[in-house]
């Protein structure tokens, strides 16, 4: 079982345009759809469609359309009722796959609600099923107004302190201050999933473009996160593919380009692919392979639609072992890219 926390969930509205987006014009949509979203919600959705039990923890009223969407799609959730409606995030997609996204700030969460959300998460992590305690908890997405940037660090400590040796491992996918704030206060997450921009931002190491261009530079940046207490880094590098960096080794994965229809949720799917391979006991390189296969499959689907394991093609992914930080490639070749992930 995998638990996800989404502090700032959203109703994702995707509007398909019949041509290119024209700023300042009135344009007619060719299609429009709504899905329950937010990064942790998406990870839970992607796991659920692949038959891996996942529980999404999130704020929001029972009657909120985000909860309605989760009920409709059979995604298990535990919600903290709040008065304000959740946000709507808008995505505009063009026929060539260009995706434009506008994310709202979301309703504020006051300190009492923040405490209650953490308590709800710890409670969900304490539940055991036939396969035992939850293996992972995923802390994902932006933080709503009123929530301090170290919220994920505080949440991770609460989970670990209250559940002790039974605590699930912690995966983090966020950006900006919530990402850097999550690396404060001692032991870091067991897994962090930045894209090149977030990796550059969190390490101050180099520019996003330089990290995307040079995976070995990205390996060195990832090692800076390991030195700060992070267990493993799963970094998506746009055209260069994705990297997995742990204390044991580094791997680079890439695959032929896919016809992108909407990149929204591709990063969340990549994380879900990694986790479902990890809980199935696959090797680190095969977990990375499944992450890239999932991300590519998600990019080829419209809106925030997420692939099941059966929709993915891990055999199309090339994984290359790298000789540690900064070392040369040990074997194999890498080809072109998975789609660039979208926030
Ligand atoms: O504003 P945040 O929390 O950073 O990101 C929210 C979001 O863009 O992330 C998901 C895609 O990863 C979407 O479902 C959702 O709209």
UniProtKB/TrEMBL annotation:
Record's keyword annotation contains tRNA processing: no
Region called Disordered, residue ranges: 320-343
GO cellular component terms, semicolon-separated: cytosol
Domain Carbohydrate kinase PfkB: 24-307
Pfam families, A to Z: PfkB
Keywords in alphabetical order: ATP-binding, Kinase, Nucleotide-binding, Transferase
Record GO terms (molecular function): ATP binding; phosphofructokinase activity
NCBIfam families: 1-PFK
Family classification: Belongs to the carbohydrate kinase PfkB family.
Protein known as: 1-phosphofructokinase family hexose kinase
UniProt organism field: Arthrobacter zhangbolii
Phylogenetic lineage: Bacteria, Bacillati, Actinomycetota, Actinomycetes, Micrococcales
């Amino acid at each position: 079982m995998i638990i996800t926390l989404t502090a700032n969930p959203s109703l994702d509205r995707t509007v398909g345009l019949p041509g290119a987006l024209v700023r300042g014009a009135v344009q007619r949509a060719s299609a429009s759809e709504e899905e329950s979203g937010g990064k942790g919600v998406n990870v839970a959705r992607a796991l659920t469609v692949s038959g891996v039990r996942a529980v999404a923890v999130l704020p929001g009223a029972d009657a909120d359309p985000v909860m309605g969407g989760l009920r409709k799609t059979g995604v298990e959730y535990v919600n903290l009722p709040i008065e304000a409606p959740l946000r709507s995030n808008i995505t505009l997609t063009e026929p060539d796959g260009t995706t434009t996204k506008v994310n709202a700030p979301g309703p504020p969460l006051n300190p009492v609600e923040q405490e209650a959300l953490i308590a709800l998460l710890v409670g969900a992590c304490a539940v055991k099923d036939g396969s035992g305690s939850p293996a992972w908890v995923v802390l994902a997405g932006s933080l709503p107004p009123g929530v301090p940037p170290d919220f994920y660090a505080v949440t991770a400590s609460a989970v670990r302190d209250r559940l002790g040796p039974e605590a699930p491992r912690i995966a983090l996918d966020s950006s900006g201050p919530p990402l850097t704030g999550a690396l404060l206060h001692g032991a870091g997450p067991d897994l962090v999933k930045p894209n090149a921009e977030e990796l550059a931002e969190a390490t101050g190491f180099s520019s996003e473009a330089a990290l995307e261009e040079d995976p070995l530079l990205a390996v060195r940046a990832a090692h800076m996160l390991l030195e700060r207490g992070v267990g493993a880094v799963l970094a998506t590098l746009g055209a260069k593919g994705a990297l997995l960096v742990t204390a044991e080794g580094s791997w680079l994965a890439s695959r032929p380009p896919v016809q992108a229809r909407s990149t929204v949720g591709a990063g969340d799917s990549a994380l879900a692919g990694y986790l479902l391979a990890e809980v199935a006991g696959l090797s680190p390189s095969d977990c990375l392979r499944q992450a890239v296969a999932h991300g590519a499959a998600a990019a080829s689907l419209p809106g925030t639609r997420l692939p099941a394991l059966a929709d993915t093609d891990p055999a199309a992914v090339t994984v290359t072992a790298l000789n540690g930080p900064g070392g040369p490639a040990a074997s194999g070749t890498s080809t072109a890219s998975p789609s660039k992930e979208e926030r």
